[in-house]
Design goal:
It is built from 9 helices and no strands. The chain is 84% helix and 0% strand.
């Protein structure tokens, strides 16, 4: 009986934690009028998932601080990625050829993966353009991670389409949890080690 109650408590605590992080993401996204809040709020959410054993108060403080410090640079990245996605998407309005439309969707998928890598490996002391370029470079260096990230995207789209209520309360927090887990895969850890070694040798 005690084992059942302890497992039940863990499940309830996990549900609460995902819902709490989702609420923070929604609040801070709205604080940035959505358009200017989504990128810094998503980065803050991913940053919190990288921490362990946080209380609710500590989580809020970290979330708020990361959101505040990264607000302008994350919005710069959001504008840059938005322009790229917008220019590519315009082809869907004027070109009816199926293979071109598929090519456009493929490019949009690459942009999505680049955004994930940008958020995952963001460094505050590096220039924005440099980090966007590196994010696109990482597309070709992390093929296994890309498959996982695309799986997260497909799962999110299916959740929004068939269970929008769950997507509202748990969608983004669950997605960033999975992105963070994928970021700690063996492939990603090997890459991070190579990047750190390269930085040390460069200095």
């Amino acid at each position: 009986m005690d084992t059942f109650l302890s497992k039940y408590a863990i499940v309830i605590q996990t549900i609460y934690w995902f819902a709490y992080l989702q609420m923070l993401w929604l609040i801070f996204s709205l604080a940035g009028l959505v358009v200017f809040g989504v990128f810094p709020a998503t980065y803050a959410l991913l940053s919190v998932w990288k921490q362990e054993s946080l209380t609710s108060k500590q989580t809020f403080q970290i979330f708020r601080e990361v959101f505040r410090r990264s607000f302008f640079v994350m919005n710069g990245a959001g504008i840059l990625y938005g322009v790229m996605a917008g220019l590519i998407s315009m082809n869907l309005l004027f070109i009816e050829a199926v293979y071109i439309r598929l090519l456009v969707l493929a490019f949009l998928g690459l942009i999505f993966l680049s955004i994930v890598h940008f958020l995952q490996y963001f460094e505050r002391d590096k220039p924005l353009i440099h980090q966007v370029k590196r994010a696109f470079l990482l597309l070709w260096m992390l093929p296994k991670s890309n498959v996982g990230h695309m799986g997260v995207l497909v799962g999110m789209l299916l959740l929004v389409a068939f269970m929008p209520g769950l997507a509202l309360f748990f969608g983004m927090s669950a997605a960033m949890f999975l992105v963070n887990k994928i970021g700690y895969s063996k492939e990603s850890e090997q890459l991070q080690h190579k990047l750190k070694t390269h930085q040390l040798s460069a200095t």
